[in-house]
Design brief:
Strand content of chain B: over 45%
Structural class of chain A: mainly beta
Largest sheet of chain A: 7 strands, mixed
Largest interface: A-B, 30 and 28 residues
Distance between the termini of chain B: 40 Å
Number of helices of chain A: 0
Number of strands of chain B: 11
Structural class of chain B: mainly beta
Order of helices and strands of chain B: EEEEEEEEEEE
Oligomer: heterodimer
Largest sheet of chain B: 6 strands, mixed
């Protein structure tokens, strides 16, 4: 069975641009969470979606948005990119909305120049 | 804001040595998880502890959850080069009886085991 898949794996943007990151959860998992991991730090919670509804939001500005589709895949959008948005963006899936076992993808490495 | 403080931040040891990584908070967590992350990959779950005082063993790794569910430790016996990686603790808090998939991570411990 395929694990959590994320795309793209690496991308480079310039300040002010916007980016869309995509995530496909493990088959049968209905919950997707997004985390930002800056180099040298632990991941920080951005969003959680369950059954296409936002169930949790971390302390991130409104430039960050996300959505979940009927097939449970998800997109994370970041507008007006800043240098500080450079990070590894991790998607995690789980069966339900609880913080039980999370399965992480390999992440999308975003570099903002 | 719930914070998890991990220590030490860096650990460089020789093969065969023992080590302990600590994870502390002023908040009470419903459960605490330990992950291992290798370069270029996402974190992989090692264990989940949910009961205060709980001890779990996974081969050479021993995990403990504090009685008050505010702290945890990871002990590795006879470390091997394959144990090298970033170790992360992460806590979950039930909100109104339902946790929402939000984990609070510590900043991580980079472990290097030299042959």
């Amino acid at each position: 069975d395929a694990g959590v898949t994320q795309s793209p794996t690496h991308l480079i943007k310039t300040r002010g641009q916007h980016v869309t990151l995509r995530c496909s959860p493990i088959s049968g998992h209905k919950s997707v969470s997004w985390y930002q991991q800056v180099l040298g730090q632990g991941p920080q919670f951005i969003f959680q979606y369950y059954e296409k509804e936002e169930r949790g939001r971390g302390n991130f500005p409104d430039r960050f948005s996300a959505r979940q589709f009927p097939n449970y895949s998800s997109e994370l959008n970041v507008n007006a990119l800043l240098l500080g948005d450079s990070a590894l963006y991790l998607c995690a899936s789980s069966l339900g909305p609880g913080a039980g076992e999370l399965f992480f993808g390999e992440g999308s490495r975003l570099t903002v120049l | 804001t719930q914070l998890l403080e991990q220590s030490p931040q860096f650990l460089s040891i020789q093969e065969g040595e023992n080590l302990t990584v600590y994870c502390n908070s002023s908040s009470v967590f419903s459960s605490l998880q330990w992950y291992r992350q290798e370069p270029g990959e996402g974190p992989v779950l090692l264990v989940t502890v949910v009961t205060g005082g709980e001890v779990k063993k996974l081969k050479r790794l021993t995990f403990q959850f504090g009685d008050a569910r505010k702290d945890s430790s990871l002990h590795i016996t006879a470390a091997q080069p394959g144990d090298t990686g970033l170790y992360l603790c992460a806590g979950a808090i039930n909100a109104g009886g339902t946790s929402y998939g939000k984990l609070t991570f510590g900043q991580g411990t980079i472990l290097t085991v030299h042959p």
